[in-house]
Amino acid sequence: MAMSKPKRILYHVLVTVFALLMIYPILWLVASSLKPNDEIFATSYSLIPSRLEFSNYATGFQGFGGTTFATFFKNSFIIVVISTIGAVASSALVAFGLARTKFFGQKFWFACMMATMMLPHDVVIVPQYVMFAKFGWLSSFKPLIIPHFFGTPFFIFLIMQFIRTIPKELDEAAKIDGCSKYGVFYRVVLPLIGPALITSSIFSFYWRWDDFINPLIYLNSPDKYPVSLALKLFLDGESLNNWGGMFAMATLSLLPVVIVFFVFQKYIVEGISTTGLKG
Amino acid sequence: MKKLRDNEHITGYVFTAPFVLGFLIFTLYPVLSSLYYSFTDYNLMEAPRWLGFDNYQRMFMDDEKVAKSFQVTFTYVLGSVPLRLIFALFVAMVLNTATRAVGLYRSAFYLPSLIGGSVAVSIMWQQIFGDQGLVNSFLTLIGIPSSTSWIGNPSTALWTLIALSTWQFGSSMIIFLAGLKNIPKDYYEAASVDGANAVRRFFHITLPMLSPIILFNLTLQTISAFMTFTPAYIISRGEGGPLDQTLLYSLYLYRKAFSHFEMGYASALAWIMLLIVGALTLLIFKSSTRWVHYETKGD
Protein backbone atom coordinates (compact mmCIF):
# COMPACT_ATOMS: atom_id res chain seq x y z
CA MET A 1 0.00 0.00 0.00
CA ALA A 2 2.01 2.96 -1.25
CA MET A 3 1.14 6.41 0.02
CA SER A 4 0.68 9.42 -2.23
CA LYS A 5 3.53 11.88 -2.18
CA PRO A 6 1.98 14.62 0.02
CA LYS A 7 0.81 11.97 2.43
CA ARG A 8 4.27 10.44 2.54
CA ILE A 9 5.87 13.80 3.31
CA LEU A 10 3.34 14.46 6.08
CA TYR A 11 4.04 11.00 7.49
CA HIS A 12 7.78 11.63 7.67
CA VAL A 13 7.33 15.10 9.16
CA LEU A 14 5.05 13.79 11.91
CA VAL A 15 7.21 10.76 12.74
CA THR A 16 10.37 12.88 12.75
CA VAL A 17 8.82 15.47 15.07
CA PHE A 18 7.70 12.73 17.46
CA ALA A 19 11.12 11.05 17.32
CA LEU A 20 12.83 14.37 18.09
CA LEU A 21 10.44 14.91 21.01
CA MET A 22 11.41 11.48 22.34
CA ILE A 23 15.13 12.09 22.21
CA TYR A 24 14.87 15.74 23.26
CA PRO A 25 15.64 14.96 26.94
CA ILE A 26 18.85 13.21 25.86
CA LEU A 27 19.86 16.13 23.65
CA TRP A 28 19.08 18.43 26.59
CA LEU A 29 21.38 16.38 28.82
CA VAL A 30 24.23 16.63 26.31
CA ALA A 31 23.62 20.36 25.75
CA SER A 32 23.54 21.02 29.50
CA SER A 33 26.87 19.27 29.89
CA LEU A 34 28.37 21.89 27.60
CA LYS A 35 26.75 24.99 29.13
CA PRO A 36 28.38 27.27 31.71
CA ASN A 37 27.06 26.46 35.19
CA ASP A 38 24.95 29.61 35.56
CA GLU A 39 23.30 29.07 32.19
CA ILE A 40 22.05 25.47 32.56
CA PHE A 41 18.80 26.31 34.32
CA ALA A 42 18.54 29.96 33.25
CA THR A 43 18.08 28.94 29.62
CA SER A 44 16.71 25.46 30.17
CA TYR A 45 14.59 25.43 27.02
CA SER A 46 17.54 26.15 24.74
CA LEU A 47 19.74 23.41 23.36
CA ILE A 48 22.46 25.80 22.26
CA PRO A 49 25.00 26.98 24.83
CA SER A 50 26.16 30.63 24.55
CA ARG A 51 29.70 29.20 24.50
CA LEU A 52 30.94 25.63 24.68
CA GLU A 53 32.06 24.94 28.23
CA PHE A 54 34.24 21.85 27.94
CA SER A 55 35.68 22.56 31.38
CA ASN A 56 32.58 20.83 32.84
CA TYR A 57 34.13 17.58 31.71
CA ALA A 58 37.40 18.42 33.44
CA THR A 59 35.80 19.49 36.73
CA GLY A 60 33.38 16.57 36.72
CA PHE A 61 36.14 14.09 35.94
CA GLN A 62 38.03 15.13 39.10
CA GLY A 63 35.48 13.10 41.03
CA PHE A 64 35.16 13.14 44.79
CA GLY A 65 37.66 13.22 47.63
CA GLY A 66 40.65 12.42 45.44
CA THR A 67 39.04 9.56 43.52
CA THR A 68 38.63 10.55 39.89
CA PHE A 69 36.30 9.21 37.26
CA ALA A 70 39.27 7.34 35.77
CA THR A 71 38.98 5.01 38.78
CA PHE A 72 35.19 4.77 38.51
CA PHE A 73 35.37 3.89 34.81
CA LYS A 74 38.14 1.38 35.45
CA ASN A 75 36.04 -0.28 38.18
CA SER A 76 33.02 -0.43 35.90
CA PHE A 77 35.04 -1.98 33.10
CA ILE A 78 36.58 -4.62 35.39
CA ILE A 79 33.18 -5.63 36.79
CA VAL A 80 31.43 -5.55 33.43
CA VAL A 81 34.06 -7.38 31.38
CA ILE A 82 34.77 -10.22 33.83
CA SER A 83 31.12 -10.85 34.72
CA THR A 84 30.12 -10.74 31.05
CA ILE A 85 32.76 -13.30 30.06
CA GLY A 86 31.64 -15.53 32.92
CA ALA A 87 27.94 -15.16 32.17
CA VAL A 88 28.21 -15.85 28.44
CA ALA A 89 30.69 -18.74 28.67
CA SER A 90 28.77 -20.55 31.40
CA SER A 91 25.42 -19.88 29.70
CA ALA A 92 26.71 -21.40 26.44
CA LEU A 93 27.75 -24.61 28.23
CA VAL A 94 24.44 -24.91 30.06
CA ALA A 95 22.42 -24.13 26.93
CA PHE A 96 24.18 -26.90 25.05
CA GLY A 97 23.63 -29.32 27.93
CA LEU A 98 19.92 -28.56 28.08
CA ALA A 99 19.34 -28.45 24.33
CA ARG A 100 21.53 -31.27 23.04
CA THR A 101 22.05 -33.96 25.69
CA LYS A 102 19.48 -36.30 27.22
CA PHE A 103 19.99 -36.88 30.91
CA PHE A 104 18.11 -37.69 34.05
CA GLY A 105 16.38 -34.57 35.40
CA GLN A 106 16.85 -32.50 32.26
CA LYS A 107 13.23 -31.29 32.15
CA PHE A 108 13.37 -30.47 35.84
CA TRP A 109 16.44 -28.24 35.48
CA PHE A 110 14.93 -26.55 32.45
CA ALA A 111 11.85 -25.73 34.55
CA CYS A 112 14.11 -24.41 37.33
CA MET A 113 15.81 -22.17 34.81
CA MET A 114 12.52 -20.74 33.54
CA ALA A 115 11.37 -20.19 37.13
CA THR A 116 14.61 -18.37 37.99
CA MET A 117 14.01 -16.10 35.00
CA MET A 118 10.65 -15.02 36.45
CA LEU A 119 11.85 -14.74 40.06
CA PRO A 120 11.84 -11.16 41.38
CA HIS A 121 15.41 -10.30 42.31
CA ASP A 122 14.22 -8.60 45.50
CA VAL A 123 13.44 -11.97 47.02
CA VAL A 124 17.09 -13.03 47.08
CA ILE A 125 18.66 -9.66 47.92
CA VAL A 126 18.55 -10.03 51.70
CA PRO A 127 19.61 -13.70 52.00
CA GLN A 128 22.36 -13.24 49.39
CA TYR A 129 23.68 -10.29 51.36
CA VAL A 130 23.73 -12.40 54.53
CA MET A 131 25.47 -15.22 52.66
CA PHE A 132 28.09 -12.97 51.02
CA ALA A 133 28.73 -11.31 54.37
CA LYS A 134 29.53 -14.75 55.81
CA PHE A 135 31.84 -15.46 52.84
CA GLY A 136 33.67 -12.21 53.66
CA TRP A 137 32.83 -10.79 50.24
CA LEU A 138 31.49 -7.41 51.35
CA SER A 139 33.14 -4.27 49.96
CA SER A 140 34.75 -6.23 47.16
CA PHE A 141 33.82 -6.92 43.54
CA LYS A 142 33.19 -10.59 44.32
CA PRO A 143 29.40 -10.39 44.88
CA LEU A 144 29.13 -8.40 41.64
CA ILE A 145 31.15 -10.86 39.56
CA ILE A 146 31.20 -14.43 40.88
CA PRO A 147 27.44 -15.22 40.76
CA HIS A 148 27.52 -14.52 37.02
CA PHE A 149 29.81 -17.49 36.41
CA PHE A 150 26.88 -19.84 37.00
CA GLY A 151 24.80 -19.13 33.93
CA THR A 152 22.21 -16.41 33.36
CA PRO A 153 18.73 -17.83 32.59
CA PHE A 154 17.94 -15.23 29.93
CA PHE A 155 21.13 -16.01 28.02
CA ILE A 156 20.73 -19.77 28.45
CA PHE A 157 17.26 -19.47 26.97
CA LEU A 158 18.43 -17.26 24.11
CA ILE A 159 21.35 -19.55 23.21
CA MET A 160 19.11 -22.64 23.48
CA GLN A 161 16.68 -21.11 20.98
CA PHE A 162 19.63 -20.58 18.67
CA ILE A 163 21.08 -24.08 19.11
CA ARG A 164 17.67 -25.55 18.25
CA THR A 165 17.93 -24.06 14.76
CA ILE A 166 21.12 -26.07 14.09
CA PRO A 167 20.21 -29.38 12.40
CA LYS A 168 20.76 -32.39 14.67
CA GLU A 169 22.24 -34.22 11.66
CA LEU A 170 25.42 -32.19 12.15
CA ASP A 171 25.78 -33.65 15.65
CA GLU A 172 25.18 -37.15 14.29
CA ALA A 173 27.72 -36.72 11.51
CA ALA A 174 30.37 -35.52 13.96
CA LYS A 175 29.58 -38.43 16.24
CA ILE A 176 30.11 -40.92 13.41
CA ASP A 177 33.43 -39.21 12.72
CA GLY A 178 34.40 -40.04 16.31
CA CYS A 179 33.54 -36.82 18.11
CA SER A 180 32.39 -37.04 21.72
CA LYS A 181 29.65 -34.68 23.01
CA TYR A 182 32.40 -32.34 24.14
CA GLY A 183 33.83 -32.40 20.65
CA VAL A 184 30.39 -31.73 19.17
CA PHE A 185 30.03 -28.69 21.42
CA TYR A 186 33.49 -27.35 20.73
CA ARG A 187 33.80 -28.11 17.02
CA VAL A 188 30.23 -28.08 15.71
CA VAL A 189 27.94 -26.00 17.88
CA LEU A 190 30.25 -23.32 19.29
CA PRO A 191 31.36 -21.99 15.88
CA LEU A 192 27.70 -21.71 14.82
CA ILE A 193 26.24 -19.85 17.81
CA GLY A 194 28.42 -16.73 17.46
CA PRO A 195 25.48 -14.35 16.91
CA ALA A 196 23.69 -15.60 20.06
CA LEU A 197 26.89 -15.17 22.08
CA ILE A 198 27.33 -11.63 20.77
CA THR A 199 23.72 -10.73 21.60
CA SER A 200 24.14 -12.14 25.11
CA SER A 201 27.40 -10.26 25.62
CA ILE A 202 25.81 -6.98 24.60
CA PHE A 203 22.90 -7.37 26.99
CA SER A 204 25.18 -8.49 29.77
CA PHE A 205 27.27 -5.40 29.13
CA TYR A 206 24.20 -3.16 29.37
CA TRP A 207 22.79 -4.74 32.51
CA ARG A 208 26.07 -4.80 34.40
CA TRP A 209 26.98 -1.26 33.29
CA ASP A 210 23.63 0.09 34.52
CA ASP A 211 23.51 -2.07 37.66
CA PHE A 212 22.94 0.22 40.60
CA ILE A 213 21.35 -1.65 43.49
CA ASN A 214 24.07 -4.31 43.83
CA PRO A 215 27.03 -1.90 43.98
CA LEU A 216 24.92 0.25 46.32
CA ILE A 217 24.48 -2.66 48.70
CA TYR A 218 27.90 -4.27 48.50
CA LEU A 219 30.41 -1.44 48.03
CA ASN A 220 31.10 1.20 50.64
CA SER A 221 34.39 2.85 49.78
CA PRO A 222 34.35 5.29 46.83
CA ASP A 223 37.62 3.97 45.37
CA LYS A 224 35.71 0.76 44.50
CA TYR A 225 32.64 2.50 43.07
CA PRO A 226 31.59 1.87 39.48
CA VAL A 227 30.35 4.81 37.40
CA SER A 228 26.66 4.20 38.18
CA LEU A 229 27.24 4.57 41.90
CA ALA A 230 29.72 7.43 41.52
CA LEU A 231 27.11 9.53 39.69
CA LYS A 232 24.96 9.35 42.80
CA LEU A 233 27.71 11.18 44.71
CA PHE A 234 26.92 14.33 42.72
CA LEU A 235 23.56 14.40 44.46
CA ASP A 236 25.01 13.92 47.95
CA GLY A 237 25.87 16.94 50.07
CA GLU A 238 28.55 19.45 49.27
CA SER A 239 29.18 18.93 45.58
CA LEU A 240 25.53 19.81 44.91
CA ASN A 241 26.45 22.91 42.92
CA ASN A 242 28.52 21.31 40.24
CA TRP A 243 25.62 20.88 37.80
CA GLY A 244 27.83 21.13 34.72
CA GLY A 245 30.18 18.46 36.02
CA MET A 246 27.27 16.20 36.89
CA PHE A 247 25.71 16.50 33.45
CA ALA A 248 29.11 16.00 31.82
CA MET A 249 29.80 12.75 33.70
CA ALA A 250 26.22 11.54 33.16
CA THR A 251 26.73 12.07 29.43
CA LEU A 252 30.11 10.32 29.53
CA SER A 253 28.59 7.34 31.38
CA LEU A 254 26.07 6.85 28.57
CA LEU A 255 28.68 6.97 25.84
CA PRO A 256 29.88 3.32 25.99
CA VAL A 257 26.26 2.10 25.89
CA VAL A 258 25.39 4.24 22.88
CA ILE A 259 28.58 3.25 21.02
CA VAL A 260 27.92 -0.45 21.58
CA PHE A 261 24.37 0.08 20.35
CA PHE A 262 25.38 1.67 17.07
CA VAL A 263 28.09 -0.91 16.38
CA PHE A 264 25.96 -3.97 17.19
CA GLN A 265 22.47 -2.70 16.33
CA LYS A 266 21.56 -5.74 14.23
CA TYR A 267 22.22 -8.20 17.05
CA ILE A 268 20.31 -6.11 19.56
CA VAL A 269 17.18 -5.84 17.45
CA GLU A 270 17.25 -9.56 16.69
CA GLY A 271 17.86 -10.42 20.34
CA ILE A 272 14.90 -8.36 21.53
CA SER A 273 12.56 -9.66 18.83
CA THR A 274 13.36 -13.33 19.38
CA THR A 275 13.34 -13.52 23.16
CA GLY A 276 11.76 -10.34 24.40
CA LEU A 277 14.89 -9.41 26.32
CA LYS A 278 14.43 -6.11 28.01
CA GLY A 279 16.94 -3.57 26.78
CA MET B 1 37.21 -44.39 30.68
CA LYS B 2 35.67 -44.07 27.25
CA LYS B 3 32.42 -45.45 28.58
CA LEU B 4 32.30 -42.82 31.27
CA ARG B 5 33.01 -40.11 28.75
CA ASP B 6 30.21 -41.27 26.51
CA ASN B 7 27.60 -41.64 29.24
CA GLU B 8 25.06 -38.98 28.34
CA HIS B 9 23.76 -38.57 31.88
CA ILE B 10 27.23 -37.59 33.02
CA THR B 11 27.90 -35.43 29.98
CA GLY B 12 24.58 -33.67 30.52
CA TYR B 13 25.47 -32.81 34.10
CA VAL B 14 28.98 -31.70 33.16
CA PHE B 15 27.49 -29.12 30.79
CA THR B 16 24.69 -27.99 33.08
CA ALA B 17 26.81 -28.07 36.25
CA PRO B 18 27.30 -24.27 36.38
CA PHE B 19 23.56 -23.68 36.39
CA VAL B 20 22.75 -26.55 38.76
CA LEU B 21 25.32 -25.36 41.30
CA GLY B 22 24.41 -21.70 40.85
CA PHE B 23 20.73 -22.49 41.21
CA LEU B 24 21.28 -24.36 44.46
CA ILE B 25 23.70 -21.82 45.98
CA PHE B 26 22.51 -18.46 44.67
CA THR B 27 18.78 -19.05 44.16
CA LEU B 28 17.25 -22.00 46.00
CA TYR B 29 19.17 -21.66 49.27
CA PRO B 30 18.61 -17.87 49.44
CA VAL B 31 14.89 -18.22 48.65
CA LEU B 32 14.44 -20.80 51.40
CA SER B 33 16.56 -18.98 53.96
CA SER B 34 14.62 -15.81 53.17
CA LEU B 35 11.44 -17.70 54.04
CA TYR B 36 13.01 -18.68 57.36
CA TYR B 37 14.26 -15.13 58.09
CA SER B 38 10.77 -13.81 57.40
CA PHE B 39 9.64 -15.54 60.60
CA THR B 40 12.47 -14.08 62.67
CA ASP B 41 13.91 -10.91 64.09
CA TYR B 42 17.35 -10.60 62.49
CA ASN B 43 19.71 -7.62 62.51
CA LEU B 44 22.87 -9.39 61.19
CA MET B 45 24.68 -8.87 64.52
CA GLU B 46 22.85 -11.45 66.61
CA ALA B 47 21.46 -14.82 65.56
CA PRO B 48 17.93 -14.75 64.13
CA ARG B 49 15.26 -14.87 66.85
CA TRP B 50 12.05 -16.79 66.04
CA LEU B 51 8.95 -14.59 65.95
CA GLY B 52 6.32 -16.74 64.27
CA PHE B 53 3.96 -14.66 62.16
CA ASP B 54 4.77 -11.37 63.89
CA ASN B 55 6.49 -9.82 60.87
CA TYR B 56 3.53 -10.57 58.63
CA GLN B 57 1.10 -9.32 61.23
CA ARG B 58 3.09 -6.12 61.60
CA MET B 59 3.08 -5.63 57.81
CA PHE B 60 -0.67 -5.79 57.48
CA MET B 61 -1.82 -4.42 60.85
CA ASP B 62 0.71 -1.97 62.21
CA ASP B 63 2.87 -0.62 59.41
CA GLU B 64 1.11 2.18 57.57
CA LYS B 65 4.05 2.57 55.23
CA VAL B 66 3.41 -0.87 53.78
CA ALA B 67 -0.13 0.10 52.81
CA LYS B 68 1.24 3.35 51.39
CA SER B 69 3.91 1.61 49.34
CA PHE B 70 1.34 -0.89 48.02
CA GLN B 71 -0.80 2.01 46.90
CA VAL B 72 2.15 3.80 45.29
CA THR B 73 3.43 0.64 43.59
CA PHE B 74 0.03 -0.40 42.21
CA THR B 75 -0.56 3.10 40.87
CA TYR B 76 2.86 2.96 39.26
CA VAL B 77 2.35 -0.49 37.72
CA LEU B 78 -1.23 0.13 36.57
CA GLY B 79 -0.23 3.50 35.16
CA SER B 80 3.06 2.73 33.47
CA VAL B 81 2.58 -0.77 32.01
CA PRO B 82 -0.57 -0.07 29.93
CA LEU B 83 0.77 3.33 28.81
CA ARG B 84 4.03 1.75 27.74
CA LEU B 85 2.34 -1.02 25.78
CA ILE B 86 -0.17 1.32 24.10
CA PHE B 87 2.62 3.65 22.99
CA ALA B 88 4.72 0.68 21.86
CA LEU B 89 1.90 -0.78 19.78
CA PHE B 90 0.86 2.56 18.32
CA VAL B 91 4.38 3.52 17.24
CA ALA B 92 5.09 0.01 15.95
CA MET B 93 2.00 0.21 13.73
CA VAL B 94 2.99 3.63 12.45
CA LEU B 95 6.51 2.43 11.63
CA ASN B 96 5.24 -0.79 10.07
CA THR B 97 4.23 1.07 6.90
CA ALA B 98 7.62 -0.05 5.59
CA THR B 99 9.69 2.84 4.38
CA ARG B 100 13.42 2.83 4.09
CA ALA B 101 13.75 5.22 7.03
CA VAL B 102 12.21 2.70 9.42
CA GLY B 103 15.61 1.63 10.76
CA LEU B 104 16.52 5.18 11.66
CA TYR B 105 13.18 5.87 13.37
CA ARG B 106 13.36 2.58 15.20
CA SER B 107 16.76 3.52 16.65
CA ALA B 108 15.48 6.92 17.77
CA PHE B 109 12.49 5.40 19.57
CA TYR B 110 14.61 2.62 21.06
CA LEU B 111 17.31 4.94 22.44
CA PRO B 112 15.35 5.94 25.60
CA SER B 113 14.73 2.28 26.40
CA LEU B 114 18.40 1.48 25.86
CA ILE B 115 19.72 3.99 28.38
CA GLY B 116 16.59 4.37 30.52
CA GLY B 117 17.64 2.08 33.36
CA SER B 118 20.80 4.03 34.08
CA VAL B 119 21.52 6.38 36.94
CA ALA B 120 22.44 9.07 34.42
CA VAL B 121 18.92 9.10 32.97
CA SER B 122 17.31 9.17 36.42
CA ILE B 123 19.45 12.19 37.29
CA MET B 124 18.50 13.78 33.97
CA TRP B 125 14.80 13.19 34.69
CA GLN B 126 15.12 14.67 38.15
CA GLN B 127 16.58 17.87 36.67
CA ILE B 128 14.08 18.05 33.79
CA PHE B 129 11.15 18.01 36.22
CA GLY B 130 12.86 20.17 38.87
CA ASP B 131 11.63 23.67 39.71
CA GLN B 132 13.98 25.25 37.16
CA GLY B 133 14.01 22.32 34.79
CA LEU B 134 13.22 21.89 31.14
CA VAL B 135 9.49 21.34 31.67
CA ASN B 136 8.90 24.55 33.62
CA SER B 137 11.20 26.51 31.35
CA PHE B 138 9.22 25.31 28.36
CA LEU B 139 5.83 25.99 30.00
CA THR B 140 6.93 29.52 30.84
CA LEU B 141 8.09 30.02 27.27
CA ILE B 142 4.66 29.17 25.85
CA GLY B 143 2.94 31.47 28.35
CA ILE B 144 2.02 29.15 31.24
CA PRO B 145 4.39 30.32 33.95
CA SER B 146 5.21 27.45 36.28
CA SER B 147 7.75 27.20 39.04
CA THR B 148 6.57 24.18 40.97
CA SER B 149 8.96 21.31 41.33
CA TRP B 150 7.20 18.34 39.76
CA ILE B 151 9.47 16.09 41.78
CA GLY B 152 8.82 17.88 45.07
CA ASN B 153 5.06 18.13 44.67
CA PRO B 154 3.32 15.14 46.29
CA SER B 155 0.53 15.03 43.72
CA THR B 156 2.82 14.91 40.67
CA ALA B 157 5.98 13.15 41.95
CA LEU B 158 4.80 9.62 41.14
CA TRP B 159 3.63 10.70 37.69
CA THR B 160 7.12 11.84 36.79
CA LEU B 161 8.22 8.25 37.46
CA ILE B 162 5.34 6.90 35.35
CA ALA B 163 6.31 9.30 32.57
CA LEU B 164 9.91 8.08 32.77
CA SER B 165 8.77 4.48 32.43
CA THR B 166 6.39 5.27 29.56
CA TRP B 167 9.17 7.11 27.75
CA GLN B 168 10.99 3.76 27.55
CA PHE B 169 8.48 1.95 25.33
CA GLY B 170 11.17 1.16 22.76
CA SER B 171 11.97 -2.47 23.53
CA SER B 172 8.28 -3.47 23.52
CA MET B 173 7.91 -1.55 20.27
CA ILE B 174 10.65 -3.63 18.64
CA ILE B 175 8.94 -6.85 19.74
CA PHE B 176 5.60 -5.62 18.36
CA LEU B 177 7.26 -4.54 15.12
CA ALA B 178 8.63 -8.06 14.67
CA GLY B 179 5.17 -9.47 15.43
CA LEU B 180 3.44 -7.17 12.94
CA LYS B 181 5.80 -8.24 10.17
CA ASN B 182 4.63 -11.84 10.70
CA ILE B 183 0.96 -11.12 10.04
CA PRO B 184 0.24 -12.26 6.45
CA LYS B 185 -0.60 -9.31 4.19
CA ASP B 186 -3.47 -11.18 2.49
CA TYR B 187 -5.47 -11.19 5.74
CA TYR B 188 -5.71 -7.42 5.46
CA GLU B 189 -6.39 -7.54 1.73
CA ALA B 190 -9.17 -10.06 2.17
CA ALA B 191 -10.70 -7.95 4.95
CA SER B 192 -10.51 -4.82 2.80
CA VAL B 193 -12.29 -6.61 -0.03
CA ASP B 194 -15.01 -7.58 2.44
CA GLY B 195 -15.38 -3.91 3.32
CA ALA B 196 -13.70 -3.82 6.74
CA ASN B 197 -12.41 -0.36 7.61
CA ALA B 198 -9.11 0.38 9.39
CA VAL B 199 -10.65 0.23 12.87
CA ARG B 200 -12.29 -3.14 12.22
CA ARG B 201 -9.08 -4.50 10.67
CA PHE B 202 -7.21 -3.43 13.80
CA PHE B 203 -9.63 -5.10 16.21
CA HIS B 204 -10.30 -8.22 14.16
CA ILE B 205 -6.88 -8.94 12.65
CA THR B 206 -4.01 -7.00 14.24
CA LEU B 207 -5.01 -7.32 17.87
CA PRO B 208 -5.90 -11.05 17.84
CA MET B 209 -2.80 -11.93 15.82
CA LEU B 210 -0.57 -10.00 18.22
CA SER B 211 -2.26 -11.23 21.39
CA PRO B 212 0.37 -13.87 22.31
CA ILE B 213 3.08 -11.20 22.03
CA ILE B 214 0.99 -8.77 24.03
CA LEU B 215 0.56 -11.38 26.76
CA PHE B 216 4.29 -12.02 26.86
CA ASN B 217 5.07 -8.30 27.08
CA LEU B 218 2.38 -7.68 29.65
CA THR B 219 3.81 -10.36 31.93
CA LEU B 220 7.44 -9.28 31.65
CA GLN B 221 6.67 -5.58 31.94
CA THR B 222 4.46 -6.12 34.99
CA ILE B 223 7.15 -8.06 36.80
CA SER B 224 9.84 -5.53 36.00
CA ALA B 225 7.58 -2.58 36.89
CA PHE B 226 7.01 -4.15 40.29
CA MET B 227 10.73 -4.27 40.89
CA THR B 228 11.52 -0.70 39.79
CA PHE B 229 14.13 0.73 42.11
CA THR B 230 16.79 2.98 40.57
CA PRO B 231 14.65 5.93 39.37
CA ALA B 232 12.66 6.07 42.62
CA TYR B 233 15.87 5.91 44.65
CA ILE B 234 17.68 8.59 42.62
CA ILE B 235 14.76 10.97 42.12
CA SER B 236 13.71 10.90 45.78
CA ARG B 237 17.34 10.67 47.03
CA GLY B 238 16.68 7.33 48.64
CA GLU B 239 13.79 8.59 50.76
CA GLY B 240 10.70 7.77 48.71
CA GLY B 241 9.38 11.27 49.29
CA PRO B 242 7.67 13.69 49.14
CA LEU B 243 5.21 12.32 51.74
CA ASP B 244 6.16 8.77 50.69
CA GLN B 245 4.57 9.40 47.29
CA THR B 246 7.41 7.64 45.46
CA LEU B 247 7.99 4.93 48.06
CA LEU B 248 7.91 2.02 45.61
CA TYR B 249 7.81 -1.37 47.27
CA SER B 250 11.40 -2.24 46.29
CA LEU B 251 12.63 1.01 47.76
CA TYR B 252 10.81 0.37 51.04
CA LEU B 253 12.25 -3.14 51.17
CA TYR B 254 15.73 -1.75 50.54
CA ARG B 255 15.31 0.82 53.30
CA LYS B 256 14.13 -1.78 55.80
CA ALA B 257 17.00 -4.12 54.97
CA PHE B 258 19.92 -1.77 54.46
CA SER B 259 19.08 1.42 56.34
CA HIS B 260 17.38 -0.16 59.37
CA PHE B 261 18.98 -3.62 59.12
CA GLU B 262 15.66 -5.33 59.80
CA MET B 263 16.52 -8.38 57.73
CA GLY B 264 13.67 -10.52 59.04
CA TYR B 265 11.05 -7.90 58.32
CA ALA B 266 12.56 -7.15 54.90
CA SER B 267 12.40 -10.89 54.08
CA ALA B 268 8.71 -10.93 54.96
CA LEU B 269 8.23 -7.96 52.62
CA ALA B 270 10.12 -9.87 49.90
CA TRP B 271 7.96 -12.97 50.29
CA ILE B 272 4.73 -11.02 50.06
CA MET B 273 6.10 -9.44 46.90
CA LEU B 274 6.91 -12.87 45.51
CA LEU B 275 3.36 -14.03 46.22
CA ILE B 276 1.84 -10.94 44.62
CA VAL B 277 4.00 -11.13 41.50
CA GLY B 278 3.32 -14.87 41.26
CA ALA B 279 -0.44 -14.35 41.63
CA LEU B 280 -0.45 -11.57 39.04
CA THR B 281 1.51 -13.68 36.56
CA LEU B 282 -0.92 -16.54 37.10
CA LEU B 283 -3.87 -14.19 36.67
CA ILE B 284 -2.49 -12.87 33.39
CA PHE B 285 -1.94 -16.41 32.10
CA LYS B 286 -5.33 -17.71 33.30
CA SER B 287 -7.23 -14.82 31.82
CA SER B 288 -5.27 -15.17 28.59
CA THR B 289 -7.45 -18.05 27.33
CA ARG B 290 -10.22 -15.47 26.97
CA TRP B 291 -8.27 -13.01 24.89
CA VAL B 292 -5.16 -14.62 23.46
CA HIS B 293 -5.55 -16.07 20.02
CA TYR B 294 -3.24 -18.88 18.95
CA GLU B 295 -3.02 -19.70 15.25
CA THR B 296 -2.67 -23.45 15.75
CA LYS B 297 -6.12 -23.84 17.30
CA GLY B 298 -7.54 -23.64 13.79
CA ASP B 299 -10.59 -21.54 14.61
Explain what the structure shows:
The complex is a heterodimer of chains A (279) and B (299). Chain A has a domain at 71-226 and 271-275: MetI-like fold (Orthogonal Bundle). Chain A is 70% helix and 0% strand. Chain A contains 13 helices and no strands. Chain A has helices spanning 5-33, 55-61, 69-100, 106-118, 122-135, 142-145, 153-163, 168-176, 181-192, 194-210, 213-218, 227-233, 243-275. The mean pLDDT of chain A is 86. By secondary structure, chain B is mostly helical. Chain B has a two-stranded antiparallel ribbon with strand order 1-2. Chain B has 14 helices and 2 strands, in the order ααββαααααααααααα. Chain B has one domain: MetI-like fold (Orthogonal Bundle), CATH 1.10.3720. In chain B, a hairpin with a 7-residue loop joins strand 1 (40-41) and strand 2. In chain B, 40% of the residues are buried. Classes of the chains: A mainly alpha (279), B mainly alpha (299). Chains A and B meet through helix 1, helix 3, helix 4, helix 5 and helix 9 of A and helix 2, helix 4, helix 5, helix 6 and helix 7 of B.
Summarize the structure.
Chain B: Keywords: Cell membrane, Membrane, Transmembrane, Transmembrane helix, Transport. The complex is a heterodimer of chains A (279) and B (299). Chain A is mainly α and 279 residues long.
What attributes characterize this protein structure?
heterodimer; A: mainly alpha; 13 helices; B: 299 residues; mainly alpha; MetI-like fold; two-stranded antiparallel ribbon; ABC_transporter_permease (chain B); cell membrane (chain B); transport (chain B); MetI-like_sf (chain B)
CATH class membership of one domain in chain A: Mainly Alpha
Structural category of chain B is: mainly alpha
Nearest-integer average pLDDT of chain B: 85
Q: Pick out the low-confidence regions of chain B.
A: none
The CATH architecture name of chain B reads Orthogonal Bundle
- In CATH, the topology of one domain in chain A is named MetI-like fold
Strand content of chain B: under 5%
Which range does the strand content of chain A fall in?
A: under 5%
Q: Residue ranges of chain A: pLDDT <50 for 5 or more in a row?
A: none
Structural class of chain A: mainly alpha
- How much helical structure, as a percent, in the residues of chain A? 55-70%
CATH class of chain B: Mainly Alpha
Q: Estimate nothing, just give the exact number of structural domains of chain B.
A: 1
